[in-house]
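SAMPLE LOG
Freezer: B-3
Tube label: C17
Construct: single chain, 102 aa
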Amino acid sequence: MSVVKLTTENFEQEVIHSDKPVLVDFYADWCGPCKMMAPVVEEIAAEKEDVKVGKLNIDEEMEIAQKYKVMSIPTFMVFKGGEAVKRDMGAKPKSEVISMFE
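STRUCTURE (predicted):
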């Protein structure tokens, strides 16, 4: 599955009402570590059929970033059943990001 671009318009449908766990990558285009993590996020989306992966640009969707208290980027959050259940920050190995689903 490909990475879903998350916006204010589709966040509730794609994340809150998703029937699968959702990994949300809060990022910005100017962020070096975010750029480093982009291929990893793409790989996870391509490999994991049982989860949804989305990216949310904090500069374009500030309201959502503020709602979830995103203070540094990249921030990764896993949502299950409409709730944020796990959160981690910074560049990290793919295995660490995938382990957030456990």
